[in-house]
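Reader question, answered in our methods column.
A reader sent in the components of a multi-part assembly and asked whether the whole thing could be modeled at once rather than chain by chain. We filled in our standard form and ran it. Here is what they sent:
COMPLEX SIZE: two components
ENTRIES:
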Amino acid sequence: MNSEPTTLLQGTLDLLILKSLFAGEMHGLGISRRIQQITGGTFVVKPGSLFPALHRMEEEGWISSFWGDSENNRRAKYYRLTKPGRKQLEAETKRWGRISWAIAQALETS
Amino acid sequence: MPLFVKVRSFLGNLFSLRRVDVDLDQEVHAHLELLIAENIRAGMPPAEARRAARIELGGIEQVKEQVREGRLGNWLHSVLSDCRYGFRQLRKNPGATAVMVFTLALTIGATTAIFSVVYGVLLRRLPYTDANQITAIFEVSSEGRWSHLADPNFDDFRDQNRSFETIAKYNSNIVSVSGASQPTRTMVAAVSPDFLKVFRVQPILGRDFTAADAKKGAGPTVLVSYGYWRQQLGSPLDFSQLHLKIDGAVYSVIGVLPDGFRFPADVDLWLPADLGGETPSRTAHNYYAVGRLRDGVTVDLANQDISAIARRIHETSSEQNDYLLKDGVVVPLHDSITGKARPALLVLLGAVGFLLLVACANVANLLLAQASVRVRELAIRSALGAARGRLIRQFLTEAFLLSLVGGGLGVIGAFWGVAALVELAPQNLPRLDSVSINIPVLVFAFLLSTAVAAGLGAFTAARATSGDLGKGLEEGGRGQAGSQRSQRVGRAIVAAQIAITLVLVVGAGLLGRSLMKVLEVNPGFRVDKIVAMDVSLPWVEDPKAKASQAIFFANLIERLKQIPGVGKVGATSGLPMDGGLPNGMFLLMTQNEIPKTTDGFGLLQQKERLGSADFGVVTDGYFQALGIPLIRGRIFDQRDGPNSPHVAVISESLARDRWPNQDPIGHTIEFGNMDGDVRLLTIVGIVGDIHDYGLDAPPRPTVYVNLFQRPRSAITLTMLSDADTRLVTSSARGILQDLDAEIPAKFRTFSQVYSASLGSRRFNVILVGFFGITALLLATAGVFGVMAYSVSRRTREIGVRVALGAGSGDVLRMILSQGLRTIFIGVVIGIAGSLALTRTVESLLFGVTATDPLTFGGVTLLLVGAALVACFIPARRATKVDPMVALRYE
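And here is the structure of the entire assembly that came back:
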């Protein structure tokens, strides 16, 4: 729904969070580790950027949260993708594809 | 639904902030726990695991703050917290806050009240459909004055113009009406049949006039106002049998006009004009005219159109004399109604605006004093990372709180203010019924408060946050340097305040002196102890019927004289100061000349035989009751019966102007164009001048004729009486009832008429005076505040001076000279400003010039005196400073 262009960096973080949650519900630390894993360690998300992003995305309605128990029985706040969140993920993925293709083109021609 | 989610989060952030925050806190802590557990799993010892986790998290509070700042509605939240903080600040100084709120409430309220009058009278559209198309049309006389229209001229305007969709003429009069619940004196308009079409008004019941209703000899018909229909007629739905006797003739009621339509002002009945036929003369100016412009035609175009027609008439008419129109003019109806009231209302608006500025200056000074005490607080907040913008916003928020609370209270006060203004307003102020506190006025009040807030807030913020905020912490907590600067600003504000106050009080002084000068004028007659009684009999033309009306009045006068306490009784065609007498041209005749008809104006070509004068029909008792002195000759008496030679008495100024170096007594004149009677009048006496058009207008040359020789049907009786007015009134009413039960009478005391004639002047003086006095008090308080503050800030310095040997005289001189400098600068600017601005009130002045030295001198002394007293109290306090206490104060 929300197709406002976001800044590249913020957009990247959002996209990575959405992508991580696509696999299933996860708590904050899980998301952070997942991003680290799927980007081969290129992106390490600090809590200072992660939490504001999570809360903002929840206010946008892309993800929703609930309290649950972690793998080793600790209470943690879990996040999951909502329907608008899936759409946003699709849109962002396409957009990202376009951008990275364009950048790649630009770098090759020069 | 993202929108729904957004709204829910926004409301959650706003209203259940605590819950949202607790949740956040738990989440961050849970995260920390997870991190620790992870580290332990990785093999770290517990203490090491905790430390590493904390490092990775990077500060619980910072993370939470970062989340908070990204939240929806964060700005609103911070505004609310600014407000809460602002409220606490204002509560900390309840005295100063109360003073500021009261000052703002008083002046915003006063400004709102005055604006509501300006809006209602000058700005609000007239309550008619497409009212901007409605214009008033006037003839322009040879002297350039705008005058009413003569019938044939109106007909030419109507038939030859290409600018108007409809054009109509009208005039209005108070006449006796019977046939309703009781006989009344009612305002009746005579109108041409298209009159209502100009206003696009239709009767809510019955029908409009048709061309047939206006034909000569048509059956008399009348339209009634909604109010008259309800109150006098009892709201009948069927009025086919309803007749009103108006001015002696019987009219059938054919329709009721919508509620609120009263044009011309105060009219209750509308009749077709000219049922007896039009007046053929082009110099008998009997009607006003209104027209509705065609779509797309501007007032300018219409003006050229009418002007061209008028000049054509001027060139081709056979009636070439001074009374023939020279030109024609078209103005928006709104302007023609409100034009006269405009200058005074704008002066009032300006005056109250000045008052508001003076008040804002006081509030600004108080805020500034508070801000300089808060230097330390600002320094701490700035050190803790508050941006300058945030601090500025804090000041703005506080100013808004003050102004909006003050403005809100002011608007509540303005409701009473408007009621009082309407009560106090002169009777001749047009459109007073459209003055109220309405939406546009409220919007004005809100914008005004906002502007005041923005001004005050921006000013204090700019002053308080300029320079290096960090210095506030260094200066040992006393903020001396900062306060030095803010004191200079404070004194500049006070100087400005004195300047504005001076302008305002000079304005009030000039208006006040004018009123005094007006009151010094000898009106030429007595104003006290006179009871006036308006009576009109049906209008008749037949000389015999006229004669019998004269006998009726003679009887009435004789009977009124019998009322205990009543002395002299007279009658006049028009009371002085009540609209004035009609004016016309008379002819000087020789004794044996016999004029032919009133229309034989051939003689009017002979300038040397012409004279111009007001025309009054009176009785001998009128001069006696009003105490108008006889200068020479005699007034009317028993000799002057209907069949004896007709005589006239003239006023002193006419004698002087028309018969210089001659004795007018014994000369004969003909003044037939006023009452249709061409019999010659022999001048038998000269009486004193009277200020007929108000004390501030010069007396007008007047010819008086005798009611018993020149009868008329509508007169005002004047009774000189020592008895209680109510007793006289009820006796007089009984006598009139006894003579003819169908004739209504209206009673006034002459002092009421006299007082009403001074109404506008009094209104202006009271209001501008009130604003001036309030400004003076505010300015005095401002001077006092700034000086007291300065003394309290300089306590230590004064203590040092005294310790080093300064006497109390030195201290007093030092403080006073500092105050005097400020006052002097203010006064100089104020005098310069007054000289520039009082020109705008020139049209409202009488007997004083706009640069009246007495007023300027007096006001300056008053202001300097008040300001000096305000300086003296803090200066005295400064002399009492005990050096030991002052120095230990640290």
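What stands out: The radius of gyration of chain A is 15 Å. Chain A has a mean pLDDT of 83.
Send us your own complexes using the same form.
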